[in-house]
Amino acid sequence: MLVFNERKAIVSFLEPLIAQKKTIGFVPTMGALHDGHLSLLDKSLKENDVTVMSIFVNPTQFNNPEDLEKYPRNLESDVSKVEAFNKNVLIFAPSVSDIYKNNVTSENFDFDGLENQMEGKYRPGHFDGVGTIVKRLFEIIRPTNAYFGEKDFQQLQIVKKMVEKVNLPVNVIGCPIFREKSGLAMSSRNERLSKEAKEKATIIFKILKAGKKYFEEHSALATQSFVEKEFSKHQDFKLEYFDIAEEKTLLPCIRKSKKKKYRGFVAVFIEDIRLIDNIGL
Ligand code: PAF
């Protein structure tokens, strides 16, 4: 299996394939791979001639230095996982200096307000970091199709907006959230949870499902209070936000409209680990 650690090397490798009009599927990740990532790879392998996965813990998208430091990293085990899954995947695992030279900073983006909601409110600068790295990776890999999980639904909408604004020739494809049997959304951060916390964290999806049902008969505001009350029954959890927002604009739902699609978004701490999830309403 081919693993590239330098941007120059992967650019030279891909150049002739792009010239031959091969389709390139791309799955960007920060490693600590789980079955959710593999499901993105699976889709890419089925839909493209060539599939590239990047593994890069991007420093500019972490607003909290401790979070960056503690982010799980294990390139060797990630490479083995991908190799066991499919040897044809090309891995791109560059160093920070290869991507950022000696200027580890973000570009400033205008995502038409998508960046001001939810994650953007609580993680200042996060989406500028995401936009910066995804744009750089797209410029290096030049993918035809790029695959993103809907667990980071706001990120998915932001990447779509970035591609539209910068005018990059990439189809950004959102893929459904991959869950454990228990309902817990798969996330690299789950690796940091104790066994007990991982079990307790299954209530996140249970509450989201209850919220979805409640929303059928009640307003967004009432549903928000309902969900907040449900979380308050669980002492181990610290709810950061539960918001109901319109899928496209991510603006909060004030009055329900049958013409619009809504989602419930949650960020919650357990054992000081921040987990996010969402559900279509
Ligand atoms: O979702 C992630 O893992 C990251 O935000 C991404 C898209 C790989 C950018 O660093």
Oligomeric state as shown:
single chain
- CATH homologous superfamily descriptor of the largest domain: HUPs
Radius of gyration: 19 Å
The beta-strand count equals: 9
Order of helices and strands: EHEHEHHEHHHEHEHHHEEE
The CATH topology of the largest domain comes to Rossmann fold
Record the strand order, biggest sheet.
1-4-3-2-5-6
Q: In CATH's first tier, which class of the largest domain applies?
A: Alpha Beta
Shape from CA axes?
globular
Q: List unreliable stretches of 5+ residues.
A: none
Distance between the termini: 41 Å
Report the mean per-residue pLDDT as an integer: 97
Main sheet specs: 6 strands, parallel
Query: Can you count the helices?
Result: 11
Second rung of CATH, namely the architecture of the largest domain:
3-Layer(aba) Sandwich
Which class best fits the helix and strand makeup? alpha/beta
Strand content: 15-25%
Number of domains: 2
Topology:
Layout lengths: L2 E2 L2 H13 L4 E6 L5 H13 L2 E6 L9 H6 L4 H11 L4 E3 L3 H5 L17 H5 L3 H16 L3 E5 L3 H14 L4 E5 L19 H6 L2 H15 L2 H13 L4 E10 L15 E9 L2 E8 L1
Parallel strand pairs: 1-4, 2-3, 2-5, 3-4, 5-6
Antiparallel strand pairs: 7-8, 8-9
Helix pairs in contact: 7-8, 10-11
The structure holds pantoate.
InterPro entries: Pantoate_ligase, Pantoate_ligase_C, Rossmann-like_a/b/a_fold
Keywords: ATP-binding, Cytoplasm, Ligase, Nucleotide-binding, Pantothenate biosynthesis
Subunit structure: Homodimer.
Explained architecture:
The structure is a single chain. This protein has 281 residues and is of the alpha/beta class. The chain has helices spanning 7-19, 35-47, 65-70, 75-85, 96-100, 118-122, 126-141, 153-166, 195-200, 203-217, 220-232, and strands at 3-4, 24-29, 50-55, 90-92, 145-149, 171-175, 237-246, 262-270, 273-280. The strands form 2 sheets. The protein has a 6-stranded parallel β-sheet, sandwiched between helices. A 3-stranded antiparallel β-sheet has the order 7-8-9. Helix 8 (153-166) links the parallel strand 5 (145-149) and strand 6. The structure holds pantoate.
